[in-house]
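>> received
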Amino acid sequence: MAEIINLQTEKERVLIGGLNRKAPDFDYTMNELKELAKADNMEVVDQVVQNLDRMDAATYFGSGKVQEIAELANGLDIQTFVINDELSPSQIANLEKETKLRIVDRTELILEIFADRAQTKEAKTQVEIARLQYELPRIHPSANSLDQQHSGGGGGLRNRGAGETQSELDRRVIRKRISDLKQNLKALEKSAATQRERRQQSGLPKVALVGYTNAGKSTTMNQLLARFDQLDAEKKQVFEKDMLFATLDTSVRTIQLPNKQQFLLSDTVGFVSHLPHNLVASFKSTLAEAADADLLIQVVDYSDPNYREMMTTTTQTLNEIGINNIPMIVAFNKADLRPDTNYPEGDGDDFIYSAKDPASIDALAKLITKHIFAGYHTVNLMIPFSESRILAELEAHTSIIEKDYTELGTQIKVVLDPIRYNKYQKFIQ
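>> returned
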C-alpha cells in the first residue's frame, strides 16, 4: 500500500513564469502561483519573470524571452510551463509551438485543482461546467478527443450538419454538454435548497466560515467540534491540510455550547486572487450557506505577510457573488506563527487567535455567542399536557436546558429566539 501511495504522489517538475507589469501585488501573486502548483502536485524547479508594460499578443512573453524559456526548460528536463495569467487560445498554441512545452495558464491550473478536489456531485458539476466553458474557445481544428470524451453527454456524432468541420462539431458537443450539466445543476441546487430550508426550520442561528484558502477555516471548525462536541467530534471532522483548496465542498455541523445553546456552523470553499470568472459564478451555489448565514466569520492567515491582500480578495469575491450586509467577525488566525503577538485578543469585531489554542477557541465561541444570541432569552415555561404539540415544537427547534414533569404540565428551561419569545409569552413563569 505504501508503495502505491508513493507512486501517486510523485510530483511533476515545472517552470512558472509571469509578466511584471508593475502591479503592486505581482510578487504576491507569483508566490501564490507556487502554492497553487504545489496544490496540483507539482514541484516548481525555477521561475521566469519578464518586465513588460503589456503582454505580447502572440506569445505573451517577448520573442527573446520565449527562446530563453525553451532553452531553460530543455536544460532542466522540464515539459510543463505554468503562467501567472489567463492566456488566449492563440497565445497558448504559439507558446507550445515555440517552446515544445505543455503550457498551463493560471485558470487551467485552478480548474485542475478544483476537478481533483471536488467531492460532492454538485461541486463536480460546477467544476465541469467551468472547465468546459474554458475549453470551448480553445479547441484546435485538429482536435478529436472531445468526441470520445463528451459524445455520451447527449450530443451524438450522427447529427453532424452538412459541411460542419470537426472543430465546429466539437464545439457543438461541448455546448450540448454544458446545457445538460446546467439542467442537472438546477436539480442539485433545488435539493440543496430543500436541505437548507429544513435547517432553517430548526430555528438555530447560522454561522459561516469564509475567507482565503488555507487560512484555517476547516481547522477552526474541527477545533470547535473537538471543544464542544467531544463525543462525536471525530466523526464530524472535516478534511484539513496545509495547502490551497484542501476543501471545496461546504460542510455544515451543529455546535452545542456548554449552556446547551446550539448553532449551525458551515465551512466553505476558500478564495484566491484572480479567480476564474466561470468559477466565481459557480461559487454562488457553493456558498449559498454563507448567503443565508446570520453571522460570517472571515478567517485570515495573520502570519502571512500578504494577509491584507487576502482580505481584499475575500471582500471582493463576496461582493461579486452578492454576499454583503451580513454581520462579520474578522478572525486573525495563526497568531502563534506571528512573533510577539498576544492572543486570544479582541477589539470589537476583530479577533486575534490561534485555532490550535483551546483558550482561543473558547474566546471565539464567546464572541460568536455575543453576536448570534444577542436577542435570545433564557426563560422557564410551563407547558400544559394539553399543549403537547407546543412541547414537541420546542424540543425540535430550540435548546432546552432543563425539563421536569409536574402535576400541571411540563416545566422547561429553554433558550428562545425573539419570535418564539413573543409567541409563547403566556407560558412564561
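>> The longest helix spans residues 166-201.
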